[in-house]
Every structure is written in structure tokens, then in C-alpha cells.
Amino acid sequence: MSEAVSLEMKEIAKRLEVANLAYHRDDAPEIDDAEYDALKARLLELEAQHPDLKDADTPTEKVGAPLAAGFGKITHKIPMLSLGNAFEEDDVSRFVAQIRAVSRDAMITSEPKIDGLSLALRYENGALVSAATRGDGAVGEDVTANARTINDIPQQLTGAPEVLEVRGEVFMSHEDFEALNARAAKNGTKSFANPRNAAAGSMRQLDASITAERKLSFFAYAWGDMSEPLGATQSESIARLAELGFRVNPLMRRTQPVAEAGKSLVAQLVEYHEEVALARAELGYDIDGIVYKVDDIATQIALGFRSTTPRWAVAHKFAAERAWTRLEAIEIQVGRTGVLSPVARLTPITVGGVVVSNATLHNLDYIAGRDSAGNAIRGGNDLRVGDRVEIYRAGDVIPKVGAVDLDARPGDTVPFVFPTACPECASPTVRDGSSLRCTGGLACPAQGKERLKHLVSREAFDIDGFGDTMVDTFWGDDALPVHQPVDIFTLPARDAQLARSEAPGENRALATRSGWGPSSANKLFSGIEAARSVHLDRMIFGLGIRHIGSTTASLIARTFLDWECFLAAAVAVAEGSVSEAARFRAIDGIGDAVIGALRETFMPGPEREAIEALAAELDIQSLEAPSTKDSTVAGLTVVFTGTLTQMTRSEAKKQAEGLGAKVAGSVSKNTDILIAGPGAGSKADKAASLGVKVIDEAAWLEMIA
DNA sequence: GTGCCTCGAGTTCC
DNA sequence: CTCGAGGCAC
To answer: How confident is the model at residue A394 (pLDDT cuts 50, 70, 90)?
Structure first.
């Protein structure tokens, strides 16, 4: 008996050691976190029961602890946004035109876009106090200890503002990357695919002494939160960062006035882009394009932001690397909404530094090479299994199939035939636009599973410990099946019931299963309990109703404020109520498609029952009604028109509604204020003829400040 | 009716 | 990141 236990303990200990090495030293996790935690929990449990068998060198008391702890989180005071992309000269022209609409003589800086990872360094009274990765832009990981090991990052600044957040890129030079991989080859450890991965892997080391051994570099190129401005322009600010001791990119340059240069701004930018592209191989580090920024900071502020990208900067990417390989097979996946997506299985090939073996094929038309109107896409030729195809990574990320080499097409290929039945549930498929769709609905297991994955995803319920893998695990679980949303929330109770009723040795309750143990089970259950309390917008989004994504879900939640109101309205819509449908339609961005989807979802039937059963297990948090006190615009009807520069239209609308104003789509005699940005057209004329007050964006912001 | 623009839904690799 | 399509402005 104790021999068997001892054997199991040794076995688990060995697996943990291997996993630790793979994770820490090679930055290539062999098992996922959940599995790791489960193994560790099991070993801890056995050690508690059999202290005599405990190994003095047990992994439960070593590296496991920091691994489980991971990195702390840092919330960025100012979000770290990504940049919009330009691929063609046309995109650059558009960018420049947009800027010149606001400032006729704007100058633009150009600099190489380093292919590494962004870092935000916070200095207080000159001392480096924290370093954070970009993360999702709002919250990053605390990598301060690792950042301190990088030579290019000063620990102490003299003459800096009291608070200064410096942003830049951590990267590994080609020289250091090759040396690192040579060392890895000698030691027989795993090498890195490219410098970017090596830099990212090194930054993610929990043991900063390992980061210190990897030679990392840092270029400063921007700033975040600070107590006083660094300069009036981009170039001045960068020069100031260099004075403070930061390494800045030597290739940074500013356009010249058109009259002096004798060339348009666009021509100057494109020339720089071409020059750097030619020098790319000799730079000694990886870059993936050029970043253009408006030099004058007041103009940057005037241009403002779209929802996720600034209007005053853009990344002009280099043409993507391309490579040829063979299309081995076309497989069909079924998505949450029942769309059948073809995926290309490829003979693995290296493109842009990573090995690609799959690529999306989008839909019917993409394979056929022609859209339904007969226009050529991808060169106009169809794809067949066995073809030699060109692969590139769109935006240097998503692998895609480009051209097909017809000369190399084997003689025995046949056009790809889309299935007439769903490969997962055998229901008939129907054509819907350029896609095929499975008609199985909730009866299709693929759709059911994908819906659950959507429900637990980060933007929806975000259940700690219950992600995609757990959906797969419990979907096929005989003792504790999870087939619809409510099953997740009844899981703890069903497990408790099982534990009470089962005979010894049955091991169907989670705490008694191998690989689980009580602590893993409890961790999962506490994640589920915490998720019961969910905000209305996340709940509506989590339902996975067609056409209702996170944005639309928020808009709806903001209108109805609590679950009962929303449910009653949605049910009324399904029963044909025109007035309730009108309440939805009055929301900006909601039209026939969304209303049709609501109607289908809330018709009497299994789908509505599943939603009501889920809601009964939850504590759905209402949204706050707009706080109208202290608001100068409460109760007013306002309309936005033209281009807003400080925020997007939907942000402006959200903010106005938060202050109790009603935002309408068009001007009428009921309109109180028209906020007109540049390029306002007929609405401004109409407002004038109706005697409606018209103000610009700045006046509006002042009014609500 | 036509042309933006934004959103939703799909996907890869680490 | 990309594509398609929904929704809105003109």
C-alpha cells in the first residue's frame, strides 16, 4: 500500500520537476497551469497523509511556489495603446491628410518600430520604482526586478520631473540572440525561434538572475504619466530622455517643411521607410516597420484617439515575409454561432521567424477564389488539397494563404467540396452570406461547447479556474456533466451531493479524483462562487446572442440597468411587442439584425429556459442609473455630428449618457444642443434653421467638465 | 442607394 | 489581425 503511494509521489514529483525546468529554464511550458496546480495539490495531499514518505528534496517546497505566484499586476495610469497600421503608401497619405486637416504645417517624426516588447518604467523623484509590461493595455505585469537587470535602463535619474513614466521597447540584439542560442545548443537546452521570443521569454523569468544572464537592450521612445511635460514636441521630449540617460534610437528623424525639402510630407516619409528597409539587415536588431508621429504635442492632443489607437501616430509596416509550402488538408471547425470555418493544415514552414502549420481559410469564397459576385480574391484561383501555396503572416501575426501555384498543381486534385452536413452534429448546413452555417443550434455539440467557452471568457464571466480546458473536461464528464451555462453554477452543489452519496473507492467527486484533490476542487469552486456576482453588461454579453458583442451588450445594459427590465423587454420583443422593440431600436447601433436575434433567443423554448435557469443561479449586478446631480446637461437631448477629435463617437455618447443627457441620432425641434466637429454637414444646417444651439467639441467638454 | 465606420466573429502562435 | 455585414450619414 505505502509502496504504491510512494511510487505515485515519486512519479508526480518527477513530472513537476520536468515541468518546472521546461517553464523556467526553457520558457516553454509542457503542461498547462491547471494541470500543474492539480499535480502539486495531489502531492501536497499525499505528503500530508504520509509525512514519512516525504522527499527532503520535494518540489512542493521549491520552485513551485514562485511559479504559482506569478507576477503582480500593475494598472497603467495612462493606458498603453497599440498603433494603427499602414501597409501601402495610400494608407500613409490618408494618415497625413487627416493630420493636415487639423494642422496645416504639422511636422512628423519617423523612427524604426523595434520588434520586442513594450515596457513602462515609472520613476519617482528620479528613482526607478516599477516596470510593467503592456499586458492588455490597461493592466500589465510587474517585471520591476527583471527590468533592473537591464543595462540600458537607468536606476536613478538626475534632473527628472518628480514623476516620470518612460515607455520604450525591450529587445535582444542579433549578436546576443545568437550567443544565447549557441549556449543553449551547447547545453542541450531548447533554443528560441527569434529574438523577440527570446526577449519576451527572458522578461518573463520569475528568477531575475536568469534575466540578468540574458543580454537585453532598451530604447526609450515615449512617455506616460508625468508631473510636468518633457517638451513641447515629440523630438524635444526624446532629446530630453536621451539627456536623462536613456538610450534612444539613433535613426529617429523629423520631416522638413515642404518648401525646404522640395518634397511632400508623404514623399519624405516613404523615402525614409525605403531607406530603413534597405538598412534593415545591418541594424543588428529586429524591426517590423516605421512609426510616424505628429511632432507637435498640442497637435497630438487636438487629434486625440480612436477607440484603441491614437490618430496622431501610425505604424508603417514592412511587406510581410512570404514562403511557399504544401496544403496538406482542409479541415472544418464549427464556431459558436454555427459558422463552418475551413482551416488549412500545412506542411510546417518558417515564416517571419515562427513555424506555421495552420492557417485560416475564412469561408467558402476564400477557398473558391471568387466572391459571390464573381470578383477575384487571392488571385482568383481556387485552393485544392495538394496545392503548393504561398503563406504570409497578415500584420506579422495571423498566418494566411495567399497565392496558389497552378503550375505545380498535381494532376489528381479535385476542387474542395463543402459538406452539406455539419461535421460535428450531421445537421444540414445552409449558406449564409459567404459562410456556411450548421442548423443544429443548441443540439450541435460544437456550438454548445463554444458557447460555454464564450460564457467563461475574459470579457464575459471570466471565471477563475474555469476556462476552455475545463469546458472540454466537464463537457464529457459522466459524473458531473456541464452542457449548458447553468450547469457550471450547479457544479459545486452537484459535487457535494456526489461526495455524500458515493461508495468508497468510486472517486467521482472531484476531491477524490486522481489529479484533482481537495485543494484544486476548492479553488475551482471558489472561482465559480465569485463569478455568480456578475455585472449586467457581462451577463448580456455572455449569453452569446448573435450580433451582440461586448459593445452592444454594454449599450443595452446601460439602457435597461437591471436584469428584470432587460428580460421583460426582450421577452416582450419576442412576443411581438412593437413598443418594446422600439426601445431597443432607439439605442444607437441597434437595428433589425440585433432585434431579430433577440426575438429568436427569447422565444418560448429551450433557449430562453436555459437563460432563465442560469439567471436564477446568479446575482446579477444592476448598473448605476446615470448620476444626474452636478450635471449641467441632465435631461437635455444632444446630437453629435462631424469628426470628434478628443474621443470616439461612442465614447462621447457613453459619457453624455452617464451625465443624464439623451443622445439622439438626428437633429429635430426636440434637440437642445448640437455638438459639431470638423466636417459637419447637413445636420449643422438643419440645426441653424431650427434655431438649435450649436457648439464645438471644446465648448462641449468645458460644459460638462 | 452608396459609402464610410464600427462591431462581431473568426483565427495563429507564443 | 482580417473580413463581412450591420447601421448610419449623406
So the answer is: low
Angle at A88 between CA A342 and CA A138, to 5 degrees: 70
Question: In what side-by-side order are the strands of the sheet with A693-695?
Answer: A662-664, A637-641, A673-676, A693-695
Q: Which of A172, A191, A173 is nearest to A181 (CA)?
A: A191
CA contacts within 13 A on the Cβ side of A211: 23
Q: Read off the pLDDT band of A626 (50, 70, 90).
A: low
* Residues of A belonging to the active site: 113
* Single pTM value for the model: 0.64
Paired strand residues for A315: A85, A291
Q: Tell me the C-alpha distance between A674 and A672, whole Å.
A: 7
pLDDT of A224-235, one tens digit each?
Answer: 999 999 999 999
Distance CA A51, CA A597 (A): 59
Residue A642 CA to nucleotide B9 C1', Å? 29
- Give A52-71 pLDDT, tens digit per residue: 666 655 555 443 323 334 67
Distances (CA, A) of A288 to A85, A208, A234: 11, 28, 21
Whose CA is nearest the C1' atom of nucleotide B11? A360
Question: Grid coordinates representing A691?
Answer: 434655431
Residues 401-440 of chain A with CB under 7 A from strand C are 432-435
Q: What does residue A206 show for φ and ψ, rounded to 5 degrees?
A: -75, -20
* Cβ count within 10 A of residue A660: 18
Distance, angstroms, CA A205 to C1' B13?
20
Measuring from the CA of residue A546 to each C1' atom, give the nucleotide at the shortest distance: B8
Residue closest to A172 by CA, chosen among A211, A120, A127, A128 = A211
